[in-house]
Amino acid sequence: MSHTTLTSLFAYKAWANTELFALLATLDEAQAAELHSCLRTLNHIHVVDRLFQAHLGGPACPYSATNTPDTPTLAALREAVAACDAWYQDHIVSLSNADLAESIAFTFTDGDRGRMSREEILLHVITHGGYHRGNVGQILKSLGMAPPRDLYTKFLHQSEPARRQG
Description:
By secondary structure, this protein is mostly helical.
């Protein structure tokens, strides 16, 4: 995968997270249970992002499971996710093709051992987050709300309007 594509995918991830957190901020007290479910799911994404960030040589990860016992507030989670998204975007810029191909051995939180290339880890972070943002979208639909259109095509055309000119 090219650096251009990876850079674009992680910009898309940050954009999609920003859009989703903005919509979640509009939920009211009557929707507290659904917001809590959304936060649990988004926290899971964040924890997994942080675990793989540590595998890639980023800051040490304080998590020993794929979610935390306590649920962060919307504001705290939004800030933590934005910081992690920025780290990934900065990290990709520093990687060579040889770095992307490098195989990394690690241990999953359940104790199983794993090995993936840096590129595979980065792709996993992208696909894992997209999958679970879709779960949050389904919760929002159950509330009669339209979730953000978490589409790579929308991101590309919104961030580069000239693409619409065919």
